[in-house]
Amino acid sequence: MDLAFTPEELAFRDEVREWVAAHLPKTISDKVHSAQRLTRDDMQGWAKTLGKKGWLGYGWPEQFGGPGWNAIQRHLFEEECAMAGAPRIVPFGPVMVAPVIMAFGSPEQQKRFLPGIASGEVWWSQGYSEPGSGSDLASVKTRAERVGDKYIVNGQKTWTTLGQYGDWMFNLVRTSTEGKPQTGISFLLLDMKSPGVTVRPIKLLDGECEVNEVFFDNVEVPADQLIGEENKGWTYAKYLLATNAPTSPTSTAPSANSSASSASRSKTACGTTCAFATRSRCWKWTSSRSR
Ligand SMILES: Cc1cc2nc3c(=O)[nH]c(=O)nc-3n(C[C@H](O)[C@H](O)[C@H](O)COP(=O)(O)OP(=O)(O)OC[C@H]3O[C@@H](n4cnc5c(N)ncnc54)[C@H](O)[C@@H]3O)c2cc1C
Prior knowledge:
Blueprint: H1 7-23, H2 26-33, H3 40-53, H4 71-84, H5 92-104, H6 107-119, E1 124-127, E2 143-147, E3 150-157, E4 168-174, E5 185-191, E6 197-202, E7 211-222, E8 226-227, H7 233-243, H8 259-263
Parallel strand pairs: 1-4
Antiparallel strand pairs: 2-3, 3-7, 4-5, 5-8, 6-7
Helix pairs in contact: 1-4, 5-6, 5-7
This protein binds flavin-adenine dinucleotide.
């Protein structure tokens, strides 16, 4: 087996290398190479630079505005970015929620949300974990009650990474208490600037506030921000966990009982794509109890 890169792949690598060298600010690569903390502007500035080039959603298929790269191209891109000292891409938008919107969102939702993710303009947060609902994610209690054309959301999320910067949040919310816990969960997109949302930093041992508690007090969320069907959120949540790698948007949306769903049992949510914190810290999702 010949594992050497082809001339085309080497040319692609050189193109990426040159582009990154020309566009990555030295102030940022110096910070990454010396393991200093990155600011919001460092992370989002690089995201926007990639976005302008069409490379922030570098795993996205062309139909949604991605470059449509194959696995080797994605690997070369990641490698070149890492070697150059580029910040890792914050995964919540381009790597996590975007594939869910592509697979299960309506055409209107795709049109509304994907461009802001692809450009790096809109910062997304992940609203899965709650106090008492970490590994046992299906026990989420944050309640979303349908009233007319809105959901009224009450409850709390926790460990929300970089939630202090969040514009939008994808949330697992309880819309029913009937039957198994998994059958009463919905996947809701929520504007974090909505009245009733409070973000409270959690100070960690190193004094930094990378994670947050997020509280919802009668937050009104338009019903057209529900992904897919009400009470089917567990399927979408598992799809996100099972497929949150840059390759995910090209994979087929699974059914609730598919192998992709079962793969989520041991999958980390961020894989190798989330080390936006620069001190070799990379939080991992280790949800082990999808039933
Ligand atoms: C730095 C950091 C950032 C995070 N960022 C986010 C984020 O942005 N958004 C988000 O939604 N979540 C986030 N999380 C939450 C994270 O994914 C959860 O911490 C994780 O799901 C585990 O939940 P828990 O902390 O409540 O631990 P617990 O569920 O309380 O588990 C504690 C320990 O018990 C073990 N355990 C639990 N149940 C069982 C069982 N049945 N059998 C055997 N062992 C078991 C676990 O493996 C673990 O070792 C973050 C966490 C951290 C630490």
